[in-house]
Amino acid sequence: MEKFSAFRDPGTGIQPFLRPVPPSGSEVLATVISPLGYVLGLVKTVLLLGLALVYAVLVQGLCLILTPVPPLHRAVTFIFTAFLSRLALLLTGVYWIPVEVVQRKRGRTSPAPEKWSLRAGDLIVSNWASWIEVLWLAFRFNPIFVLPVSETLDLPAAPTVASSPISRTPGRRTGTGSAAISSPAARTPTARIAIVGFRRVSLLSMIAATGRLPIAAADCTMPPQSLEAIRSAADRPVVVFPECTTSNGRALLRFAEVFGDVRLPVMRYKVFVMCVRYDPPTAYAPTLSHSLPSRALNPLPHAFALASALAPLPLSIRLLAPSEAPSSGAFLLSEFLAGGAYADPLAECCAALIAQIGRVKRVGLGWEDKVAFLQLYSGKK
Prior knowledge:
Blueprint: H1 28-32, H2 34-58, H3 70-92, E1 99-102, E2 123-126, H4 132-141, E3 144-150, E4 160-161, E5 186-187, E6 195-201, H5 203-208, E7 215-216, H6 227-232, E8 238-240, E9 271-278, H7 300-307, E10 315-320, H8 345-358, H9 367-377
Parallel strand pairs: 1-10, 2-8, 2-9, 3-7, 3-8
Antiparallel strand pairs: 3-6, 4-5, 9-10
Helix pairs in contact: 2-3, 2-7, 3-4
């Protein structure tokens, strides 16, 4: 994987795009029992396809007759979506999902229990590493999913320079371990490409888009909408993944400027911040992260790999206490924006909050760098 070393973040040494692999030396027993896992995985994958078909028929089909009565339509679709999503997670191998509401300053479970009380038009902001959190969000909140539309996917020419620490490191810089890893010709982070809008998608479309890049405006069949236009017309909460693509879960990618010049604290709606953490893979449990899209039927091959695992697949979800969210009246902007001009202050604050509550490092690489990475990975360069 030496040819991908140029895609390590200069400040942290983290490679945020390659699929994590288990440590070597413990594959003997896993190899012996793998045939049983493949049989089990095949059965589970067929059942997952059946659930997807049932969801399409019930929620995206029969439930449409209830649209003249919006409250009834929302209630019925929520019940079906929650049941089918949780069943899909069980078939995948995710049996238990610990969820914590945490205080940012303490980093522990909130001493005064706070609940997430979402309403129509509220925003859920999260990191994005897999389709698993998409299913969990559908199970818990049945939200509206949106996908970004970029101005273009053509990258500006960027010179290759010798690896050196960046002046402002999103993560810690120790000079040892992974932070000291460098390559003879490391890429500088690619310049930002504008996100011109969003398109509203179904749950199944959102799952199929996992790992992929934003669609270019020229390839979009319908004119993209602004996030505010989608949010203001929404009858449910709206989920936003500001990274605009999935990472491998080892770091937080650079957030795109998706919110615009929103004044903080946000007063017209609530902003809820969460972070998903996946455990490193083992010989018996592959990684839940899905940073590389499948060539066909994405993400079905990944779902088969997870369903074939004979060990439970652990993950954890941390929800920021609403009292410390960017829409709280007690939110202190000065704790996150230490001077200078920010084109999207809400995105910067959400990135800092997710990094803190999830104890994950931020990297300077963004979805634009993944464009170049996938070109190299697929052999185009």
